[in-house]
Amino acid sequence: MLEQYFKAQYALVQARPGIAGPFLEGFAGHLETEGFTPSTVGRYLRAAAHLGAWMEAEGIALPDLDDTVIGGFIQHLASCACVKARGHHSVRNRPARAGVWKFIAHLRHQDVVPPSPPSDVDLPDLVEAFQHWMLVHRGAAASTVAQYRPTIIGLLKETGGLGQFTIDGLRRFVAERTVQFGPEHGKEILSKVRMFLRFLAGQGQCDPLLVDAIPPIAHWRLASLPAYLAPGEVERIVGAPDIAKPVGLRNRAILLLLARLGLRAGDVIHLRLDDIDWPAGTIAINGKERRPGRLPLPQEVGNAILDYLSGGRPRTNARQVFVRVRPPHGPLLNSSSISDIVAFAAKHAGVVLPPGQMAHALRHSLATGLVRGGVPFQVIRTVLRHRGDDTTAHYAKVDVFSLRKIAQPWPLGGVRPC
């Protein structure tokens, strides 16, 4: 296999017996499986061989390969002049570094070199138990649980640990962050602290009275108007991707799911091939806290997904519907990937998104359009999968035409409006 990538005989002869040599065949097969082009596979293989030649020259054994050694090799790339790596010095740029990291990940997967040490210190057992409780018993997503971690660790450090919790200390912890970052952030901190205290109370590790010891923050929910786009702006965003390209087919299908069904970015990320029931024309959605739901699949959206699956989706073992265009063709990383797609389409269409809104702007726009179209709130709640009626009723504030019908005239002789 290596002969097609190492055109020069000296490079092949030099690479095989080196430290990296015994693993290059498997590395090449792994790269091909992930969908990398032959030219990229060749560059990554040459980078791996260069790493092996450098380690041999430095007297570094393969089991000693760690992040410190990797850092030294990356510094070496900037001024490579080693004889044994002749022919590889042209790959000292970014593709070379990417190839080296890929090769090391392959070696770690094969248990050839030790795994990378954790970036953070080991989490306390209490935090680990809380994360497990959130995942298993609360049905929270892993991404949501990760957002709790800094707050809980900060709480334990600042209050002195579990046995040091006091009402004053808990209130001070939340109040300081509210003053520093604002009431909206303070409400999030308060919610995370209370969730942690509920967990502790359920485990018998703290007084249940502490759960309600922190008063709510005066920042009223749903007080602002929902941000949304005009129908014409939504259509311009949906029509922005170039469907002559695979990435355009993918992005158009994603945008239609957001605009026509009001899916959240996380819903799109986790959508799997098995979630689509083509004969019934429905799509299964596992929303917040893993609450399952099923929505009808409009013809327009179904056609866009089919176009992507048949003409734009690369070959991959991933079961997620939407995958990365560039190798490796795995699932999209997180919700930010969906927001980036919306932002790019909006910029291409000349549409200015509401401040702080990306993918959610299309969801808000769908809800606003349904309310103005006279669709009953119960139907809108079902489509958007809201837990309570108050969240759906929030969109009634933008239906100015209907609000004018119930507006009362100002009483004559009364207090003048300010």
Explain briefly what this protein structure is:
With 418 residues, this protein is mainly alpha-helical.
State the low-pLDDT regions, or none: 83-92
CATH topology of the largest domain: hpI Integrase, Chain A
How would you classify the quaternary structure? Answer: single chain
Q: What is the spatial order of strands in the main beta sheet?
A: 1-2-3
- Indicate the overall shape: globular
Helix/sheet category: mainly alpha
Annotated CATH homologous superfamily of the largest domain: Intergrase catalytic core
Give me the strand/helix succession: HHHHHHHHHHHHEEEHHHHHH
Please give a structural write-up.
A hairpin with a 5-residue loop joins strand 2 (282-286) and strand 3. The chain has 18 helices and 3 strands. It is mainly α and 418 residues long. It has a 3-stranded antiparallel sheet with strand order 1-2-3, with no helix packed on it.
Main attributes?
54% helix; 18 helices; hpI Integrase, Chain A; mainly alpha; single chain; 418 residues; DNA polymerase, domain 1
Topology:
Blueprint: H1 9-15, H2 21-33, H3 38-58, H4 67-77, H5 94-109, H6 125-136, H7 142-159, H8 167-181, H9 183-202, H10 231-238, H11 246-261, H12 265-270, E1 276-277, E2 282-286, E3 292-296, H13 299-311, H14 335-349, H15 359-372, H16 377-384, H17 389-393, H18 400-406
Antiparallel strand pairs: 1-2, 2-3
